[in-house]
Design a protein that fits this description.
The chain has nine helices and two strands; from the N terminus they run αααββαααααα. With 178 residues, it is an all-alpha fold. A hairpin with a 4-residue loop joins strand 1 and strand 2 (70-71). The radius of gyration is 15 Å and the shape is globular. The relative contact order is 0.14. The model has no long low-confidence stretch (mean pLDDT 96).
Length: 178
């Protein structure tokens, strides 16, 4: 797979949004590869990790998030399911699963229903080890502050506003991956 061709198809202009996407995604990809190198016992698919990490936020271009130069029409919370649709259309269902499962530490059907989130009513939790590693790595990098790397503590505080379940998942990953 040539992930750069897919990025070029959806982000053809050299603009601020493309820069944000590429910078953020590269940081996430680099962290996933570092985790893979530190933990050979996990037998992670390095090629897939890099591809999927570079594409995990492909759907942001269709969302409305002016703070990160997104001027689409969809709510930002939908960027994962939008990206999944895009990658399924491209013929990459495994990569699509990463898109739809990386928001927060994953989103449960129960949370979607209780919060009336504009998402399909089903679980979007990372299941495979690669999905979990990418979701975990993503929590250290913000698209609005490209020059910063969050600590585990900062990422935990950021997740706390969405409930204890996500924090528990994240801290479990921190024990496994750090």
């Amino acid at each position: 797979m040539d992930y750069q061709k897919i990025i070029d198809r959806y982000y053809p202009e050299d603009n601020a949004l493309r820069h944000i996407l590429l910078t953020h995604s590269r940081a996430v990809a680099d962290r996933t590869l570092l985790i893979a190198d530190r933990h050979p016992e996990l037998q992670l698919d390095r090629t897939f990790l890099e591809e999927a990490a570079m594409l995990h936020d492909i759907g942001v271009c269709r969302t409305d998030a002016a703070g990160i130069e997104c001027f689409g029409t969809e709510p930002y919370i939908r960027h994962g399911v939008i990206g999944a649709e895009m990658l399924r259309t491209e013929g990459y269902p495994r990569h699509a699963r990463v898109c739809e499962r990386h928001t927060g530490t994953g989103i449960t059907r129960k949370a979607i229903e209780e919060r009336s989130l504009p998402l399909p009513h089903r679980d979007f939790l990372p299941e495979t080890m690669e999905e979990q590693v990418i979701c975990y790595a993503d929590k250290f990098f913000s698209k609005s502050h490209l020059d910063r790397v969050r600590t585990v503590e900062e990422a935990t505080r950021s997740l706390a506003k969405f409930g204890d379940d996500g924090v528990k998942r994240f801290l479990g990953w921190a024990e496994m991956f750090e």
